[in-house]
Write a structure and sequence with these properties.
The complex is a heterodimer of chains A (213) and B (564). Chain A contains 10 helices and no strands. Chain A is mainly α. In chain A, helix 4 packs parallel to helix 7, helix 7 runs parallel beside helix 10 and helix 9 packs antiparallel against helix 10. Chain A is globular, with a radius of gyration of 18 Å. Chain B is of the alpha+beta class and 564 residues long. In chain B, 21% of the residues lie in helices and 39% in strands. In chain B, strand 21 and strand 22 form a beta hairpin. The termini of chain B are far apart. The chains are: A mainly alpha (213), B alpha+beta (564). The interface between A and B is large, with 46 and 53 residues.
Chain lengths: 213, 564
């Protein structure tokens, strides 16, 4: 029996809380505590790197993995499942919206890059949610195998391309988008998650089967 | 001569004529570097370029100076200045030269940037390790060691060109010194230079209005000493000191002029013997040009940083977590939870937007610009610009500068690029993340402030500046009187209670203006005469396409006040 489609409840709040907590910590670490230029020269490397955006990319992906697993646990399926996953991902983005607005003061004049990063992290999170849902579906419930498979996928997706083509990694792509990517680079960054979603969404619809009313 | 031979002869003549035309049309460049062909690396250096066969489309001169080597790393300094030749076809520029290992390349550029002519000047044999004494005119004996002799017509016309001179001695000259050169020399002394003038029977050859302003004697006249030598005599100025006396007549008189010293030898150079010269040498201090490098570096360090406060970020995160916990933790989904989440996080986002506004936005570059204007009958500007990159990326900056600025270079250039491209009033450079640079500039000041002490307690000040100067002091014989803010136009102020110069403050203690004032007070003779000291600190974030830059301008005006 499938349970009612809800955005979040007492069993699914943790990924959202983790997202808000860890991106919040990254935001606090990104704020330069310096009061004068002399202190800035000694500022930590966290201030010099876009820590908050790396954390956002990483934890939006983890949110995707979490909500995908919850979706499998609940037996959600069909187009409504995809719609629900997207809504939860968008809720995650909305919960970090105050941080994004705040971080505008740390990255002046890059509002366009912000929009691209939000769109990109939404796609990556949705991709992770679909992959997580697909991995969990045949294994039913959250088995250790399923956990291992999806987290290996997640780590591989984030880390492996950094050694060769950083643009293919969500972290590398976030950096490129923030630094003011050329249209070609931006398109290349979006190409992989879009292509993977193009493959996995129909597959998820097919494997999950039509929704039973 | 056969027709064939005649045709060959005509052809040869035509070819020769054509060649001559081509040769005549080819512009040639010649350049002289340094004072008497000598320069000290790391200082401003005069470069005089002569152009022959000037093409019509020539618009600018470019100087390319390579610094460093394979071990130290390399940097390229390019200075492009508009072509402004004198009637004699020469142009005098003052450029910072840093190194002598590679030649200086000079190029004449056309309107399209094409090179019309070029030349190279070897610097290696022109290099001196330290500032050197410069003598102008003729002397019977070498007046100092490592002396560089110059003819009066070889003297540069810009005061910053004398940067390599340790002291400048003026002896016997046939035609005196050009008025523009006197002007440049006076400004150099004002900035900290040391000028030694031999006078006596040669005085009237040298006599010029600027020299009279510099001299430690008022109303000088020629007298004949008991030993038959003609000497200059007059009323010794209040701020002058007689250092040596011969035959009961002052022989060497010294006067502090601005940050520098003028030494007057009251006899001509040819009346001085070896003993006298040794006595004189011992009394000549080396030039100490006022430098704002240390002060600017400290002020840059102290420049406030914009940005949101860490506690605000912490508060936001705490509010978000508390709200999220209160709404969703341990509850079943209800529609009101969605509305509550939208409402609370929407409100937090709006509050964030209000808090993290333009005034709390971090800057990519912090720039501290210090300027010290010293104005007597003429004025100089000593400036220094410090910049720091707080950006995460390498930035390309354009810094405004009236003349090619001198960059404070480290020993090694391996870590980052120190290339500088100066073109028509702007210096282009790149700054790596977390990097800082300092640039020194020198210029001529136009009269901006004029003050007159009309009585014991009244001072009339005329300001030609567009803005009010918030902080000002009047210093009368080492006593400081605070003045009200100086508005543009005329201000009449009355002197109140005086404080000793040592206790006087221009603005808050440790504030930028006070720092600059202390630096100026170390070099300028505030202990004698009347001085108006006024300044301002302007913080701005100019809007533009480039990196977000926070600029702090610290300007101090030091003006000699006339007494009625």
């Amino acid at each position: 029996m499938t349970r009612a489609y809800v955005l979040l409840d007492r069993e699914s709040w943790r990924p959202f809380f983790t997202l808000v907590f860890f991106t919040g910590v990254a935001l606090v670490l990104s704020v330069p505590g310096a009061r004068a230029v002399g202190d800035l020269a000694r500022a930590s490397f966290l201030v010099r790197t876009p820590t908050f955006f790396y954390a956002l990319t990483l934890f939006m992906g983890l949110l995707g993995l979490g909500i995908g697993a919850t979706s499998a646990e609940r037996g959600e399926r069909g187009e409504r499942m995809v719609r629900c996953l997207l809504l939860r991902v968008l809720l995650g983005e909305f919960l970090v919206l105050p941080y994004l607005v705040f971080s505008r003061a740390l990255f002046p004049g890059r509002e366009g890059a912000f929009a691209l990063v939000i769109l990109y992290t939404t796609l990556v999170s949705l991709l992770c949610a679909i992959v997580s849902r697909l991995v969990e579906q045949p294994l039913r419930w959250r088995s250790s195998t399923g956990f291992l498979v999806k987290y290996v996928f997640f780590l591989g997706y984030n880390a492996v391309p950094l050694a060769g083509v950083p643009l293919l990694s969500p972290l590398g792509a976030t950096r490129v988008l923030l630094e003011g990517a050329t249209p070609v680079a931006a398109a290349a960054a979006f190409a992989l998650p879009c292509a993977l979603l193009g493959v996995f969404v129909p597959f998820a619809l097919h494997v999950g089967g039509r929704e039973r009313v | 001569m056969t027709r064939k031979e005649l045709a060959a002869l005509v052809a040869i003549l035509a070819w020769l004529a054509l060649g001559a035309q081509v040769a005549l049309a080819t512009p040639t460049l010649n350049a002289v570097v340094g004072l008497g062909d000598r320069f000290v690396p790391g200082r401003f250096t005069p470069v005089t370029v002569t152009v022959a066969g000037l093409p019509l489309d020539a618009v600018s001169l470019r100087f390319v100076h390579a610094v460093g080597n394979a071990w130290r790393g390399q940097a390229s300094m390019t200075y492009e200045v508009p072509l402004a030749l004198s009637d004699a076809g020469t142009q005098e520029e003052v450029l910072p030269l840093y190194d002598a290992s590679l030649p200086l390349r000079v190029e004449l550029l056309g309107s399209g940037g094409e090179i019309l002519a070029r030349t190279q000047i070897e610097l290696r044999q022109r290099k001196e390790d330290a500032a050197f004494p410069v003598a102008v005119g003729s002397f019977p004996l070498p007046v100092a060691e490592r002396l560089i002799l110059l003819a009066p017509e070889e003297l540069p016309h810009q005061w910053s060109a004398y940067d390599s001179a340790e002291s400048l001695w003026i002896g016997r000259t046939r035609g005196g010194v050009d008025a523009d050169c006197w002007d440049a020399l006076a400004r150099w002394v004002l900035s900290g230079g040391t000028l030694v003038v031999f006078s006596g029977s040669d005085f009237y050859l040298l006599d010029a209005p600027v020299l009279r302003d510099l001299l430690p004697l008022e109303t000088p006249v020629l007298i004949e000493r008991a030993d038959g030598i003609r000497a200059l005599e007059g009323r010794v100025r209040e701020d002058a000191r007689v250092l040596l006396v011969h035959d009961d007549v002052p022989w060497l008189i010294s006067r502090r002029f601005g940050a520098g010293v003028v030494l007057l030898v009251t006899t001509d150079a040819f009346s001085v013997d070896g003993v006298g010269l040794a006595e004189l040498r011992a009394k000549v201090p080396p030039a100490r040009i006022l430098s704002l490098l240390g002060t600017t570096s400290a002020l840059l360090n102290e420049q406030p940083v914009d940005g949101p406060a860490p506690w605000a970020a912490l508060l936001l995160v705490a509010a978000g977590l508390i709200a999220l916990s209160a709404i969703i933790v341990g509850r079943e989904w209800r529609p009101w939870m969605g509305t509550a989440l939208l409402g609370v996080f929407g409100l937090l986002a709006v509050s964030s937007g209000f808090y993290a506004n333009r005034a709390r936005t971090v800057s990519d570059v912090y720039l501290t610009d210090t300027e010290l204007h010293v104005e007597v009958q003429f004025g100089i500007i000593l400036s220094c610009t410090g910049c720091f990159s707080a950006s995460r990326d390498t930035l390309h900056l354009q810094v405004s500068a009236g003349h090619p600025p001198l960059q404070a270079l480290p020993r090694s250039f391996q870590e980052t690029s120190y290339d500088l491209r100066y073109r028509l009033g702007e210096a282009g450079l790149s700054l790596s993340p977390g990097e800082r640079r300092l640039f020194v500039g020198r210029d001529v000041a136009l009269s901006s402030l004029h003050a007159r002490l009309t009585g014991d307690e009244e001072v009339r000040i005329t300001s030609r500046l567009p803005r009010a100067l918030a902080e000002s002091l009047l210093i009368v014989d080492a006593e400081a009187f605070p003045l009200p803010p100086l508005q543009p136009g005329e201000t009449t102020a009355y002197l109140g209670t005086a404080t000793a110069l040592g206790n006087a403050r221009l603005g808050d203690r440790e504030a930028p203006l006070e720092r600059l004032f202390v630096e100026a007070a170390r070099a300028l003779p505030f202990d004698r005469g009347v001085w108006l000291v006024a300044g301002e600190v302007v913080d701005a974030t100019p809007r533009g396409d480039g990196p977000r830059t926070k600029v702090r301008d610290v300007r101090l005006y030091v003006v000699e006040v006339t007494r009625d």
